[in-house]
């Protein structure tokens, strides 16, 4: 498993025009710190293929450069990546927010300055006005301020609101496959000042690893054993103290609500190393999309995972009262969230001729939400996963 590499670099990008590079097997002829991070990020998708790429600047709401749009070609297939920069601790932190093969950049039709300030939102600035690139609509200053506030942080908390909806699947027969890490994950929700979903997910995963790495939580045993039975202790002061420490460690720059992916990784790595252990992660994304098969392998090897969501649906129930029909009820939340994962459930549906007509995948999670606790994330077209990692502490 490849150790997470955070490039703590002091290189500051200049306001350049289009810059073009060519590379083979992820080694460019000439590239800077931002290109190096891009190539490191995409390397797992390259294999032995050659990559050609160039980049354009992206701008923040103050029209200052805050990242890059990468356009690349691999094996004749064109794709794009959007990278942003975060300043803090006298360093520049790079973060890929989107990367897709065989897809056109959302800024491809942009004629003004491309403005990228929050997840899934693409703006351009022209004629002294902000416009939505996709719809062409003018965006007012109040909305821009909201986008800036959200930034690329993940905000989810235990008071998130959900809208319920249902879909129906008709079938002749059905099979179900389920797996969970033994004893699941601890059911912890955010209960500390300044805490958010990222701090909660980190605390859940670290509490799990305290079973194998003594004193991840100092001077505290987070579980009770009864012979072969095992239960996690409920929220305790020691866990809250660990979460408060994560709040401090997952902060790169100025205080803000929520946590970015880079802040999560830096905070987790710093905390684990302080306790005398090693923190490593495996990317569960492939070609810009969540790879369910890699995820399955990870949890089957007892490695919990963290998903970074820009919207999501939690499974309420699957009603099987009508023979040959499932009613799948979910609660949808339009907000972002970081969630700790420990298993899966796969429902495969067949027609009368035993042909597969539908497959539904669900992720077993310790949601960090008081309304769901340990439950299932519905990833069947109603959840957007922007980043996903398997976590190893050893």
Can you walk through the features of this model?
The protein has six helices and 23 strands. By secondary structure, the protein is an alpha+beta fold. The strands form five sheets. Strands 11, 12, 15, 18, 19, 20, 21, 22 and 23 form a nine-stranded antiparallel β-sheet that branches. A hairpin with a 2-residue loop joins strand 5 and strand 6. The radius of gyration is 22 Å and the shape is globular. Residues about 1-30 have low confidence and may be disordered.
What order do the helices and strands come in, and which of them pair?
Layout: E1 19-24, E2 27-28, H1 33-46, E3 50-59, E4 65-74, E5 77-88, E6 91-101, E7 113-115, E8 123-126, E9 129-132, E10 138-139, H2 141-150, E11 163-170, E12 173-180, H3 197-209, E13 223-226, E14 229-232, H4 237-249, H5 261-274, E15 279-283, E16 285-286, E17 289-290, H6 292-300, E18 305-319, E19 325-333, E20 337-350, E21 356-366, E22 374-378, E23 384-393
Antiparallel strand pairs: 1-2, 1-3, 3-4, 4-5, 5-6, 7-8, 8-9, 9-10, 11-19, 12-20, 13-14, 15-23, 16-17, 18-19, 18-20, 18-22, 18-23, 20-21, 21-22
